[in-house]
Amino acid sequence: MTALYFAEKQLKRYPLRSLAYFLACFFFAVILVMFGTVTVSMQRTLDALAVENEMDHVVVSAYADGVTKEALASEKYVEHVEKDYMMESGIGRLRSQLLGETCTYGVNVFCYENGVPSRAVEIFENKYGRSPIVCGRNVVSDGEIVLGERYLKSWGIYKDDYPKVIGATLVTSYRSYWTNEDTDDGEWTVVGVCDALFDDVLFGVTEYENIENYGWLMIARAPAEKPALGYRVYAEKGMLGSVSRSLAKKYGEDVVTEKRHSAEAQQEFSEYIAFFDRIFLFLLVLLCFAFLGVTVFAVVFYTSKQSEFHTVAAAFGARRWKLVLSQAVCYLALLLLAVLFSILVSALLQSAVFNVLNGYFSVVLFSVSVGGVFAVGGVLFAALALCVSAGVLFGTLAVKKRNL
Questions:
Q1: In whole angstroms, what is the distance from residue 77 CA to residue 223 CA?
Q2: Is 373 exposed, middle or buried (0-12, 13-18, 19+ CB in 10 A)?
Q3: Best CA proximity match to 57, nearest among 88, 78, 85, 86
Q4: CA-to-CA distance for 120 and 55, rounded, in angstroms?
Q5: Which pTM does this prediction carry?
Q6: Is 355 exposed, middle or buried (0-12, 13-18, 19+ CB in 10 A)?
Q7: Are β-strands 218-221 and 230-235 bridged in parallel, bridged antiparallel, or unpaired?
Q8: H or E stretch including 353?
Q9: Mean pLDDT along residues 106-135
């Protein structure tokens, strides 16, 4: 008679005990498999954030000796160069004869050399297959501005009303610290409306990021007399680091800065991962001890009920090691079943759990395939199997005089 035979007999003889142990294992396994799945997803997401973004660039100060747009464009591996201007901020009032007047605090006007930046437009068109200008046109002269959809939607202005915004006037002002009064400092004519998704391309903002961190998107053309603070240098794919080092060597490290869209998100997300990993490790250790304790309790608690079974089994020639092994096989079979069910539950709940975490982490987590969830479950089963086997051994040793 094999250990497997005795394990099968124990499962059939004590169905309620088996069910109780299965439910305890299932409860713990769901928590571990779900946490493990999230851990795998977070690592995959972090790897994706580390990939170079097409809008990553190097900023070179305009005050560096010998720096010009033409000189930068002639550098090796440089693909595109744009002038970099200071952002205009303040209070914005949108005046339209058809829609009335709105007032917004914290308005940011982003000035570019030729209105909506051509590189960002190209990336957007390649990604979405359409122009980022959903109504009107791009800026072609000084005193014109393109507004973002998110700004208009904040005032309840939607696509059907966009044509009514074209030709409206945007007036910006600042509040005096001394008089506490608003003073106008800029006036633009609205010539176009930009797709809300263009914000994400231009600034590297995720769909869950709070747009207030960047201000409402407003793009104007920098006047000819407005001096540039620096130059944005875009490198060929994969060559940003090389271009950055080359420019720093030529113009000085103090005037050259890398601007990676994913850098801030990557750093913040790395901190989330470190915190989450500590929680997962704590839970793993805690629940491993829980599995060990539950198994020891199950073996000890049901010893008196199994004494008759062990006596009969011994009469049939079963040795002590076979009975101990059958006990382990019995509990491992229940653990395996619990882990398989926990994998199924985790796969079904993954979308809902990730949607909650997406909002908390301000990033879209990568989904984990069913095969990936099974891999996580397999690793956890291997670790928990050791705990369960140890629990059977400790429980058996604790009551061997009564049990065997």
A1: 30
A2: buried
A3: 78
A4: 7
A5: 0.52
A6: exposed
A7: unpaired
A8: helix 320-361
A9: 87
The predicted structure's pLDDT at residue 313: 56
Rg (the chain; Cα; Å): 33
Three-state DSSP class for residue 205: coil
Q: Which residues contact 211 (CB under 8 A, 6 or more apart)?
A: 150, 199, 205
Give the three-state DSSP class for 11. helix
Residue type, 68: T
Indicate the residue type of 173: S
With bands split at pLDDT 50, 70 and 90, how would you rate the model's confidence at 133? very high
Q: Residue 294 is encoded by which pair of tokens? A: 């539950």
Closest CA to 150 of 99, 220, 214, 97: 214
Q: Which long-range contacts (CB under 8 A, 24 or more apart) does 159-164 make?
A: 159/134, 159/135, 161/99, 162/134, 162/135, 162/136, 162/193, 163/135, 164/96, 164/98, 164/99
As beta bridge partners, residue 84 has 230
What gap in Å lies between CA 230 and CA 179, rounded to an integer?
34
Residue type, 220: A
Strand order in the sheet with 256-259: 78-84, 230-235, 57-61, 256-259
